């Protein structure tokens, strides 16, 4: 079967967790390739809500192998906390979870460095999750990072830590921040090493071998394409490649191994943190979306900014990811609206733009041009037959498909697995439908 990337096409929180969990039965391996515990992927299982941050959202299915690639920024304490919270779901994962030895660690000085950087930016702050993700990737690129594999030899770890602590503390003191106690960090991480060393492995080799045996992989994106370090709305982005290009480098596989990229897209738009957001709606309608969609960050609890569907933004995302098939989520949140605006282009300095400009200094000044769509005013949640979907909703889907030049192949209408409409013809050859449908309970 195909190896498929499932990633977000907007600014995150599109519902990736629900979709990855839903599609997991159709794959053998679920792999995270970037990001860290800044991600918050929600899965709801018969009324119980589970939020995955670092561990792939396939973990709840017993028997599925889950891997964390070298492209991930890895916090051992976040991992251990999450692993403990997962006890009782999907059975033990001691023998089905592997962490790449090449993943970079998040150390206690990283959140401190982030706090200093954000404070210095003042009003121009990025509004990060404050978890040390950016500074961990900064050290990676500066070639002074410490990797998960370094925990396998505590002498190596100590040597690298000592060098880093001296440098970081000099910076912290200059900025008026207290120094970090290197010995304390060493002891904490020696403890983590004892608990996580059993999971550390060569993810690239493992995937190579498994794919050679005919096993299929679902690659799970974190964040969203518009938060990608290269292709997002820089600098209001995260510090990794959330786009499909990150899959190969973030796992140590060749791009030829990727058969398909599924783009998860919310029927409207949300964003957490600072940065441009042309279709943001702060009136009563925006508040209604926020309330109905429960739009609060799954990681930080911050309210998510809400707005209408931005077709040029999603079309851009489809281009940079090679997306031809979309998974549409949360249209049920729009059930109550008489009319739903969809942005189909922008006006900028007297001329019209049909393409998404990722530069914030342009995006901040564009005025969206909207097509008014008729609301369907029908609860979508329990509709399981594609032929019974309201005509106005089918028009909404058609407009999205035409504007972004990709086909919708799955519609999610609620938090549970069963709240899902699989468009079987469009999914043929992409996922093993038989295996996915068996778990649709
Ligand atoms: P992720 O980061 O992309 O995995 O998304 P989050 O989990 O941060 O946010 C998506 C939220 O929407 C979660 O609370 C999900 O349970 C919920 N959700 C996902 N799909 C649907 C849907 O189709 N309808 C509704 N009403 N909620 C959904
Ligand atoms: P999931 O995987 C939404 C945002 C932060 C901030 C910016 C940079 O659940 O979709 P960082 O801490 O990564 O340096 O913050 O990115 N951000 C997310 N927004 N969903 C996420 O993850 C996010 N991960 C980071 O709010 O604006
Ligand atoms: Mg999320």
Q: In terms of structural class, how would the helical and strand content be classed?
A: alpha/beta
Termini gap: 23 Å
Major sheet summary line: 10 strands, mixed
Number of helices: 14
Strand order of the largest sheet: 9-7-5-2-10-1-11-15-19-20
Proportion of beta-strand residues: 15-25%
Mean pLDDT: 96
Give the fraction of residues assigned to helices: 25-40%
Structure write-up:
- With 441 residues, the protein is of the alpha/beta class.
- It is 32% helix and 20% strand.
- The chain is built from 14 helices and 20 strands.
- Strands 9-7-5-2-10-1-11-15-19-20 form a ten-stranded mixed β-sheet, sandwiched between helices.
- A hairpin with a 2-residue loop joins strand 3 and strand 4.
- Helix 3 crosses helix 4 and helix 5 packs antiparallel against helix 6.
- The protein starts with a strand and ends with a helix.
- The model has no long low-confidence stretch (mean pLDDT 96).
- The protein binds guanosine-5'-diphosphate, 6-O-phosphoryl inosine monophosphate and magnesium ion (MG).
- The site of magnesium ion has 5 residues, from loops.
């Amino acid at each position: 079967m195909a190896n498929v990337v499932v990633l977000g096409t907007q600014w995150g929180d599109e519902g990736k967790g629900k979709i990855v969990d839903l599609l997991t039965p159709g794959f053998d391996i679920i792999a995270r390739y970037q990001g860290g515990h800044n991600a918050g992927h929600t899965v709801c299982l018969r009324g119980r809500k589970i939020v995955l941050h670092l561990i792939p959202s396939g973990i709840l299915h017993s028997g599925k192998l889950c891997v964390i690639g070298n492209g991930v920024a890895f916090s051992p304490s976040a991992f251990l906390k999450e692993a403990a919270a997962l006890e009782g779901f999907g059975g033990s994962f001691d023998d089905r979870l592997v962490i790449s030895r090449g993943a970079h660690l998040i150390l206690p000085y990283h959140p401190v460095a982030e706090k200093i950087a954000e404070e210095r930016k003042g009003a121009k702050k990025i509004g990060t999750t404050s978890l040390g993700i950016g500074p961990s990737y900064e050290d990676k690129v500066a070639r002074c990072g410490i990797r998960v594999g370094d925990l396998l030899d505590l002498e190596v770890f100590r040597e690298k830590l000592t060098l880093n602590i001296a440098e970081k503390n000099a910076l912290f003191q200059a900025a008026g921040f207290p120094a970090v106690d290197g010995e304390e960090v060493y002891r904490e991480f020696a403890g983590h090493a004892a608990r996580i060393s059993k999971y550390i492995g060569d993810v690239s080799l493992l995937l190579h071998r498994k794919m050679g045996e005919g096993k299929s992989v679902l690659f799970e994106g974190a964040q969203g394409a518009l938060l990608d370090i290269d292709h997002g709305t820089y600098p209001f982005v995260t510090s990794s490649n959330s786009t499909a290009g990150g899959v190969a480098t973030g796992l140590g596989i060749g791009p030829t191994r990727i058969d398909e990229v599924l783009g998860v897209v919310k029927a409207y738009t949300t964003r957490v943190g600072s940065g441009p957001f042309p279709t943001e709606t702060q009136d009563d309608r925006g508040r209604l979306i926020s309330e109905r969609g429960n739009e609060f960050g799954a990681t930080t609890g911050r309210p998510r900014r809400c707005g209408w569907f931005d077709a040029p933004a999603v079309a851009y995302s489809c281009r940079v990811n090679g997306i031809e098939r979309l998974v549409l989520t949360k249209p049920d949140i729009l059930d109550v609206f008489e009319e739903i605006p969809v942005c189909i282009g922008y006006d900028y300095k007297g001329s019209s733009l049909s393409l998404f400009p990722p530069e914030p200094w342009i995006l901040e000044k564009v005025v969206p041009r909207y097509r008014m769509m008729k609301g369907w005013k029908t609860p979508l949640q329990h509709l399981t037959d594609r032929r019974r979907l309201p005509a106005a909703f089918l028009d909404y889907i058609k407009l999205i498909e035409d504007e972004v030049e990709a086909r919708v192949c799955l519609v999610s209408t609620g938090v549970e697995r069963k709240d899902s409409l699989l468009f079987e013809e469009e999914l043929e050859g992409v996922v093993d439908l038989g295996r996915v449908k068996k778990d649709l309970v």
